[in-house]
Design goal:
The protein has 593 residues and is α+β, with helices and mostly antiparallel strands. It contains 14 helices and 31 strands.
Amino acid sequence: MERIRNFCIIAHIDHGKSTLADRLLEYTNTIQVTQGQMLDNMDLEQERGITIKSHAIQMEYTYKGEKYILNLIDTPGHVDFSYEVSRSIAACEGALLIVDASQGVQAQTISNLYMALEHDLEIIPVMNKCDMDSAMPDEVEDEIVDLLGCKREEIIRASGKTGMGVEEILNAIVERVPHPAGNEEAPLQALIFDSVFNSFRGIIAYFKITNGVLRKGDKVKFFNTGKEYDADEIGVLKMDMVPRNELRTGDVGYIISGIKTSKEVKVGDTITHIARPCEKAIDGFEEVKPMVFAGVYPIEAEDYENLRASLEKLQLNDASLTFQPESSVALGFGFRCGFLGLLHMEIIQERLDREFDMSVITTVPNVSYMVYDKHGEAKEVHNPSGMPDITLIDHIEEPYIRASVITTTNYIGPIMTLCLGKRGELVKQEYISGNRVEIFYDIPLGEIVIDFYDKLKSISKGYASFDYHMNGFRPSKLVKLDILLNGEPVDALSTLTHFDNAENFGRRMCEKLKELIPRQQFDIAIQAAIGAKIIARETIKQVRKDVTAKCYGGDVSRKRKLLEKQKKGKKRMKQIGNVEVPQKAFLAVLKLD
């Protein structure tokens, strides 16, 4: 056990975590690195150059003549995948905090660092990309010293590209990171921190042993679900899975026990022996709180069950996805899914398409509100169609977040304008170092959901970094905005919005739909309504044909008779005709500027 070190790599997006992990793997001769970011093995990760999943891998390193086993977990940097990071941190005793020498400390660096400090991890600061011309090693070192309160000589200068400083990092891990603490004689306790689905082997759970020993063929049970299994195969994670006969305290490994249904494996559960169970489960992770909700519907109604199976398999691989069944008048049966943010939602949609071949329609994303009725009872509402009648509502509370934006002083003005436009309230601003400032805002989560992050990046030319956490609910003047087509509400397009924005938003929505809905043989009225009050209207004119062209000469009543007949036909057509809303229209609503 004294020779085991478990550590993870944490950093902001694009600070070079995965590239540095490649160098560590190369230096310890674990694998031949044939392409960049070896641990990002999903197509999507390679294409976008981001890490979506945490990846665990074992390395062997000889230090002063002794052989050490290093278990490395590479984590994502984007705020939408912070749940992955929290799980990796729970399975480690130390963390490499990587800061880009050309960009300095950013928002996600700070929030990941605090997460690691809460778990009492040993932090090793590493300054990456020191070989770049734009690097500012001395200024960035000052920032790290301010942030961590460490000594300057403790900061390791490295480069993931050239491999500089890799040996120092490995030595620092052996010297500074404590070995896992635990008792091999105690009953088995192992924490599940991830799981994957394999269509041949069933579900494979990844775990870290805190106490006890696990041997191949042992009878084990999962503490929270109470299900019992045989450990058919156990082993350690290299680039592939390497079977072993036993794993001891402090080891990180995998277990295959022929589990078929995904509900039986819960990330954060504890594995123990049936014969000699442990007293209590390990404190796992806090339950994940979804930030953004959207309806996901199959394009073909008969694909509903396939969609359910695909979502369950995805949930194994991504524990932060939550879903429950719901139905909609316009779209039929589907699921209400909870995501951690918009990038997360986009990635899940992509993965459904690529890995399971499911094409889906996603409705407008929104957040959950607390609705209080006249009797003072609260009800959580996830989508506008679940709103009680307006006459019964006393008041509505919406979720607020505390947002922290780190930027250079040149962009403070535009960023403040953006936050105020999103109904934000300035809490405070602090100068971090030199011309870098951290601004704290309280903003309603509903305002951030759609396009806040993209706008922030474009007005700050990519220099602002953004991080947030929940900050309770506050009463707010919200109204339900319905879109009516020929007097029929389209539930997939209705949204909850603030009273001040409603009229403007309704008008823009009607204009956008007028462009996107194809013309019919009859007039289509597009209306935006709050309750019974219509606040905006556009009309899509009918496709006309000159029916009186053949009526020349004779009495005017001939023409009139024809037009009356035509009018009746149009009226009847309008009663039975239905208006198809194309998928483009649902997506266009997301991109209203």
